[in-house]
TrEMBL record:
Biased composition range(s): Low complexity: 138-153
GO biological process: protein transport
Annotated spans, Disordered: 96-168
Location within or outside the cell: Cell membrane
Name the UniProt record assigns to this protein: Preprotein translocase subunit YajC
Length: 168
């Protein structure tokens, strides 16, 4: 049984599904933004260091929930803003002076080169120890064979002499 599907209906169904997915996505994003705003408002207490939308870094002096305003102090200047002007808590980024960075880099390079040299020396030592052991094993095996060979040769000579004596 084959059904002829109207291409216009297929496009309408796809369009409706696309709109539904976009609506669900935007709804989820709005919930996340609202939750983040609530967390930020809960964190706005006097003494908190914040950054404002204009890039001003300031300390909260007071919060007025009724009018949704805050008073901030930025290096002696007191300013009044709406709560929406707060971009978030201010976290001072880690700063390393250029001289310190160069010193750290050179120390790391020294440590890595010493570690690499130590590794190669250790591996050379291991190789030379292994070679010595192999040479000693080979020598002792050869020595044992050499020792066994004269003994066998001596036994053979004794047997030859005994057979020679019997023949005489």
């Amino acid at each position: 049984m084959s059904q002829n599907l109207d291409p216009n209906m297929v496009m309408i169904v796809i369009l409706i599904l696309f709109i539904f997915m976009m609506w669900m996505s935007s709804r989820r994003m709005k919930k996340q933004q609202k939750q983040q705003q609530e967390e930020l408002r809960e964190a706005m207490v006097p003494g908190t260091l914040v950054v404002l939308r204009g890039g001003i870094i300031a300390t909260i002096v007071s919060v007025d929930e009724k009018y949704e305003e805050i008073v901030v102090d930025s290096e002696g200047s007191r300013l009044r803003f709406k709560l929406n002007a707060v971009a978030g808590k201010y976290v001072r980024p880690a700063f390393i002076d250029d001289d310190e960075a160069e010193a750290n880099d050179s120390q790391q390079e020294d440590a890595s080169s010493e570690g690499a040299e130590g590794t190669s020396v250790a591996s050379e030592t291991e190789v030379s120890d292994n070679e010595r052991t192999d040479v000693q094993n080979a020598s002792s095996a050869d020595g044992a064979a050499d020792t066994a060979a004269p003994a066998e040769a001596g036994e053979a000579d004794t047997e030859d002499k005994a057979s020679d004596n019997e023949a005489k």
